[in-house]
Amino acid sequence: MSETLTIVKHPLVQHKLTLMREKDTSTASFRRLLREISLLLAYEITRDLPLSERRIETPLCEMDAPVIEGKKLALISILRAGNGLLDGILELVPAARVGFVGLYRDEETLQPVQYYNKLPTQMNSRLAIVVDPMLATGNSSAAAVDLVKQAGATDIRFLCLLAAPEGVQRMAEAHPDVPVVTAALDERLNEKGYIVPGLGDAGDRMFGTK
Ligand code: URA
């Protein structure tokens, strides 16, 4: 598969994902699992952030201690399902700046239609992590990354829960410079653009709208 793709195979991630896939998992459980899994995925996607040293004083002595270098991260949520991943990541990186991109998928053409775009300032000096649980056709994800690049970002990663091969390929073609991190790569998309076996509509399942 694509060189830009990382699948997080940690047993806790895989177990929680299985619970989320099950059709009878309640909205409350789905939401809790999504928050838990996003912490683990955030841990993975940030594992190589550059560090610098800061002089600090412990109760015993002074030392040069590691801190994350550079400007605060920018987390960009693709509305609305991205917010489910966002909440968990923010618990781990509470000082991150947050942006929102509103895209809905035209159910006939499967193409993204933009209705909202509000990104943090100084995107050119931040690592941007774009989040959306489902990388399906990749059209919305590629469009969201386009907007993040237009805002000046050059260091961008994409985080999702489930990916379809079609979406991974679309992202690799449109944005070969953007690593994609996911918990699983599923088999395919169905004729309606849903990931199979998947977990259904992530937004509906997390917000209880169906
Ligand atoms: N969006 C979803 O919520 N689920 C899919 O399977 C595909 C796109």
UniProtKB/TrEMBL annotation:
<feature type="domain" description="Phosphoribosyltransferase">
    <location>
        <begin position="8"/>
        <end position="209"/>
    </location>
</feature>
<comment type="function">
    <text>Catalyzes the conversion of uracil and 5-phospho-alpha-D-ribose 1-diphosphate (PRPP) to UMP and diphosphate.</text>
</comment>
<keyword id="KW-0328">Glycosyltransferase</keyword>
<feature type="binding site">
    <location>
        <begin position="132"/>
        <end position="140"/>
    </location>
    <ligand>
        <name>5-phospho-alpha-D-ribose 1-diphosphate</name>
    </ligand>
</feature>
<feature type="binding site">
    <location>
        <position position="80"/>
    </location>
    <ligand>
        <name>5-phospho-alpha-D-ribose 1-diphosphate</name>
    </ligand>
</feature>
<feature type="binding site">
    <location>
        <begin position="200"/>
        <end position="202"/>
    </location>
    <ligand>
        <name>uracil</name>
    </ligand>
</feature>
<keyword id="KW-0460">Magnesium</keyword>
<dbReference type="GO" id="GO:0044206">
    <property type="term" value="P:UMP salvage"/>
</dbReference>
<comment type="pathway">
    <text>Pyrimidine metabolism; UMP biosynthesis via salvage pathway; UMP from uracil: step 1/1.</text>
</comment>
<dbReference type="Pfam" id="PF14681">
    <property type="entry name" value="UPRTase"/>
</dbReference>
<dbReference type="InterPro" id="IPR034332">
    <property type="entry name" value="Upp_B"/>
</dbReference>
<keyword id="KW-0342">GTP-binding</keyword>
<dbReference type="InterPro" id="IPR029057">
    <property type="entry name" value="PRTase-like"/>
</dbReference>
<protein>
    <recommendedName>
        <fullName>Uracil phosphoribosyltransferase</fullName>
        <ecNumber>2.4.2.9</ecNumber>
    </recommendedName>
</protein>
<dbReference type="GO" id="GO:0004845">
    <property type="term" value="F:uracil phosphoribosyltransferase activity"/>
</dbReference>
<dbReference type="InterPro" id="IPR000836">
    <property type="entry name" value="PRTase_dom"/>
</dbReference>
<dbReference type="GO" id="GO:0005525">
    <property type="term" value="F:GTP binding"/>
</dbReference>
<dbReference type="InterPro" id="IPR050054">
    <property type="entry name" value="UPRTase/APRTase"/>
</dbReference>
<keyword id="KW-0547">Nucleotide-binding</keyword>
<dbReference type="GO" id="GO:0000287">
    <property type="term" value="F:magnesium ion binding"/>
</dbReference>
<feature type="binding site">
    <location>
        <position position="195"/>
    </location>
    <ligand>
        <name>uracil</name>
    </ligand>
</feature>
<feature type="binding site">
    <location>
        <position position="201"/>
    </location>
    <ligand>
        <name>5-phospho-alpha-D-ribose 1-diphosphate</name>
    </ligand>
</feature>
<keyword id="KW-0808">Transferase</keyword>
<dbReference type="GO" id="GO:0005737">
    <property type="term" value="C:cytoplasm"/>
</dbReference>
<dbReference type="InterPro" id="IPR005765">
    <property type="entry name" value="UPRT"/>
</dbReference>
<dbReference type="GO" id="GO:0006223">
    <property type="term" value="P:uracil salvage"/>
</dbReference>
<keyword id="KW-0021">Allosteric enzyme</keyword>
<feature type="binding site">
    <location>
        <position position="105"/>
    </location>
    <ligand>
        <name>5-phospho-alpha-D-ribose 1-diphosphate</name>
    </ligand>
</feature>
<comment type="similarity">
    <text>Belongs to the UPRTase family.</text>
</comment>
